[in-house]
Write a structure and sequence with these properties.
A hairpin with a 2-residue loop joins strand 1 and strand 2. The chain is mainly alpha-helical and about 120 residues long. The chain has a two-stranded antiparallel sheet. Helix 1 runs antiparallel to helix 2 and helix 3 packs antiparallel against helix 4. The chain has two domains: about 50 residues, no CATH class; about 60 residues. Helix content is about 75%, strand content about 5%. The protein has four helices and two strands; from the N terminus they run H-H-H-E-E-H.
Amino acid sequence: MFLAITTSLPKVVVTISAARMKAVDLAVGNLFGSNLFNIAILAVYDFVYLPGSIWHAVAPIHVVAGIGAMAMTGIAIVSLTYRASTRVFMRVSWDGALLIAMYTLNLGLLFVLGSN
């Protein structure tokens, strides 16, 4: 867990700083670039994992996190191509509200399945 925090925290700081400077392209590029790099690392891990495929060694609960991450990435990609002009709740458009809902649902599922 410490490794995940130490590698993700700089990306969060850069993304928040870019958003505060109104450099939205930099913030979005940082998020997508980080995700793509992490996926590429998984391919390298699968190659060097000697007992076989790394996917067979993964706990089933991580499937929930993976599907949630893929769904949220899909929503973000769709929102990049379709610009929402109306706001659903205060300053949040439909894509932001959907991302918040997906994150909350994924977090709840991970909590329920992880506590068993």
